[in-house]
Amino acid sequence: MLNNVVVTYSVRPEAKAEHVRLIAKVFAQLQAEQPDNIDYQVMCLQDGVSFVHMSTADTPDGSNPIPQLSAFAEFGRDIADRVTAMPTPAAAEIVGSYHGRS
After folding, report:
1. 69 contacts 76 by C-beta, under 8 angstroms
2. Quick one: which of 91, 92, 83 has its CA closest to 49?
């Protein structure tokens, strides 16, 4: 069962470097573990402080395994200290997708 989620939020400018470092740790864990049922992207918008996370997980129960990653737990631990407002997750429906490059 597919689970698509988009999360948006902004970080305090002085917290951006730490925030990006913690995101990189999530991707390092994904790279090390190589799960084949997750598609995950994080983008920083042009303003330099707004972030968008997009994930798709294909699991039997429709859950998303990303929050279960130890690096993601570390990312979320002090997030309230880094963001200007708490992240807002929203379920999403994919209407088109192309995976030419990562």
Report:
1. no
2. 83
Which pair of tokens denotes residue 46? 């042009």
Residues forming beta bridges with residue 8, ordered by sequence position:
52, 88
Give the model confidence (pLDDT) of 15-44 as tens digits: 999 999 999 999 999 999 999 999 999 999
Q: Point out the least confidently predicted range of 18-22, 30-34, 60-64, 68-72.
A: 60-64
Fold classification of 2-91 is Alpha-Beta Plaits (3.30.70)
The Cα 47–Cα 64 span in angstroms is: 28
| Residues 37 and 55 sit within 8 Å (Cβ to Cβ) | no
Statement: the pTM of the whole predicted model exceeds 0.85: yes
